[in-house]
Amino acid sequence: MADSTNILALEQPILPVLTQRRSLRAYTSQPVSADVLKQLFVAASSAASCFGEQPWRYLVGTRESSPEAYDKILTSMGEFNQVWAKAAPALAVSIAKLHFSHDDNPNAWAKHDVGQATATLAIQATELGLQIHQMAGFSVDKIRTAFNIPAGYEPVAVFTIGYPGDPANLPEGLRDKETAPRVRKPLAEFMFEGAWPGVEDERYDQAPV
């Protein structure tokens, strides 16, 4: 069952699972089974990509079955992220293959496509009652060294995977972030039909920072 806590209220109706996806920090200790993990990454594989290259690669560590990989991913994170991420039962790294396989030319859209795949994974996770939290706060060099990632591949993000837990278990300062109302910019701020907006038409003051 999808996580229905703190859902988005939007100006147009969309698929409920999209409103339920969130980047939580509080997790239960419930393990994510191997079959569920496979579902998530198969979902990622369904994403579109330039030339059908599918440039995404993922490294996964679980506390139960691959604790060494789990620790490598965790310790690559900044200290702030480690404080809460260590509660998640599974951690992952998204990685982009930077050149096309058919001609070895640079793939300028590789990271875009990796993002699409991970977004698809996030929706599948939400549908199954899990959530993921993607982060830029990690050391690319630590990941590259820890896992011997070869040239031509670049770590893009790290993310947690797990079942929603009690925000009360978070350190003070993060609890309010977990339960604060979720907001999105109004459509007029980012959808421009027909032409780029003039200064007088921009509405960047509408969304809270």
Automatic annotation (TrEMBL):
Signal peptide: none annotated. SUPFAM superfamilies: FMN-dependent nitroreductase-like. The keyword Nucleotide-binding does not apply. Keywords: Oxidoreductase. InterPro entries: Nitroreductase, Nitroreductase-like. Residues 19-163 form the Nitroreductase domain. Pfam families: Nitroreductase. PANTHER family: NAD(P)H NITROREDUCTASE YDGI-RELATED, NADH DEHYDROGENASE_NAD(P)H NITROREDUCTASE XCC3605-RELATED. Belongs to the nitroreductase family. This is Nitroreductase family protein. It comes from Hymenobacter jeongseonensis.
